[in-house]
Every structure is written in structure tokens, then in C-alpha cells.
Design brief:
With 232 residues, the protein is of the alpha/beta class. It has one domain: Rossmann fold, CATH 3.40.50.300. The chain is built from seven helices and nine strands, in the order E-E-H-E-E-H-E-E-H-E-H-H-E-H-E-H. The protein has a nine-stranded mixed β-sheet with strand order 1-4-3-5-6-2-7-8-9, with helices on both faces. Strand 5 and strand 6 form a beta hairpin. Helix 1 packs antiparallel against helix 2. The longest helix is centred in the middle third of the chain and has 16 residues.
């Protein structure tokens, strides 16, 4: 959060664009959720770029509910946010994007969240970020549940789809006003093990929409865009 400016009275708060702040239609929220290091943050940056963004207003919401924002060129956003270290993301962060289908065009807030896990993490900051991700899961208008298809195709496929992933799927797909707004993103399809991993991911989430994607190459972005635009 260093060098980030607090969102004050003249700024639009996360969840609504500047235009939405003047209207009765705040942005819909679409949550990226999943285990640590599945590629959520890289997807966030590259997906925004695929929609024509050159710089994004990146905002963050800390676990205590405070908000801050920073205008970041996309290459710089990748440099400062994408990290191979587990749980580099400790609070909600996201971008405001506009999606349209047909004659409709609306604002969507795409949120990246702290990676979840099957065990209680020893670090308080990580636990707080996980709790925030779970609260947002209950409140989001749509959920993109990311799993590592390459890991699923390796020697330890159970590491790719853990109990926390099954619980996310059970909750997000349960009958609710959000019904039909949940999809599994099988990421890292640019890696060879993902061929077998994709089959295992689909078997692990029977009856759910599974979209193969590569956060690195952009494969599957069109399908994700159509899914979000159609559901929201």
C-alpha cells in the first residue's frame, strides 16, 4: 500500500466507476478466487490489457476495510504485483473494466484476492486476507474460480484441487441470486502437463463450466469475457 492515495470524498470508491458514482447503477463485482500461486494476479493484469487498457486505476481494500488507489501503467502493475512467492497478495486488489455485449455496456469490478488453502496459515496478515476473500465470495455478483491445470497434470494432482476448492465450488454454485455466475478457470494451459490436468480439473468439478485459460498467453480470454459480459 506504499505510495497509494486514500480514496477521499472526490474519488469513486471501489465497486463503482466515476460515472457509476453519479448514477444508481454501481459496478458489478466479479471475484477471482483460488489457491495461492494459481495465476490470479497475472490474469487480472493481462485480462485488463486484452480489453485495451494501457493504464489501470488499481485499488486495494485492506482487511480492515480501508481503501486506497493508484494509477498504474500495466507493465508496471505486472512488475509490482505478480510474484512467485505464495501469498504475495494480502488484500483485495482489482481493476475497473467495461464489458459489453450487443447494445449493452456496463462497468465490472474485477477483484483479485488472497490465495486460500486447506490449512490455517501461521501468519496473521495472510489469515486476515483469506478471511476477507471468503467474505467477498459471499457478496460477489460473479465468481471466477482459478485452479492450476498444469499442477493437476503433475505427480500430485490433489495439490491442485484441494478441499478448499471443493468448498468454493459447492458454495458458489449453490442456488442463490448468483446462480449461473460461477465458472472454473483452468489456468496454465500453455504448459505441457495441463493437457492431462485439464481432464482432471473437469472431473473434479462435474456439472460446472470449466474454461481453459493461460494468464500468460491470453488463451481463453475471449471466452471469459463473453461469460462475464453475458452473466453480468
Amino acid at each position: 500500500m506504499r505510495n497509494w492515495r486514500p480514496l477521499g470524498a472526490h474519488s469513486h470508491r471501489p465497486g463503482e466507476s466515476a460515472a457509476a458514482g453519479r448514477s444508481a447503477h454501481p459496478a458489478r463485482r466479479c471475484l477471482l478466487v483460488g489457491q495461492a500461486n494459481v495465476g490470479k494476479t497475472l490474469f487480472l493484469c493481462n485480462f485488463a490489457a486484452s480489453l485495451g487498457a494501457r493504464a489501470i486505476q488499481l485499488f486495494a481494500v485492506t482487511s480492515d476495510g480501508s481503501h486506497a488507489a493508484q494509477d498504474v501503467p500495466l507493465p508496471r502493475a505486472r512488475d509490482i504485483l505478480v510474484n512467485d512467492r505464495p501469498h504475495a497478495t494480502l488484500a483485495l486488489q482489482g481493476v475497473q473494466i467495461r464489458l459489453g455485449r450487443g447494445k449493452t455496456d456496463h462497468s465490472v469490478q474485477l477483484l483479485d484476492s488472497t490465495g486460500l488453502g486447506d490449512r490455517v496459515h501461521p501468519e496473521p496478515a495472510v489469515r486476515a486476507g483469506m478471511a476477507q476473500a471468503l467474505r467477498t465470495l459471499r457478496e460477489a455478483d460473479a465468481v471466477l474460480h482459478m485452479v492450476d491445470a498444469a499442477l493437476a497434470g503433475g505427480p500430485d494432482p490433489e495439490a491442485a484441487v484441494g478441499e478448499v476448492d471443493r468448498q468454493i465450488a459447492a458454495f458458489a454454485a449453490a442456488p442463490s441470486p448468483r446462480a449461473g455466475r460461477y465458472a472454473v478457470l483452468a489456468n496454465k494451459t500453455d504448459l505441457p502437463p495441463a493437457t492431462a490436468g485439464l481432464r482432471r480439473v473437469r472431473a473434479a468439478f462435474p456439472g460446472q463450466l470449466v474454461i481453459p485459460v493461460s494468464a500468460r498467453t491470453g488463451a481463453g480470454f475471449r471466452e471469459v469475457r463473453l461469460f462475464v459480459a453475458d452473466r453480468l
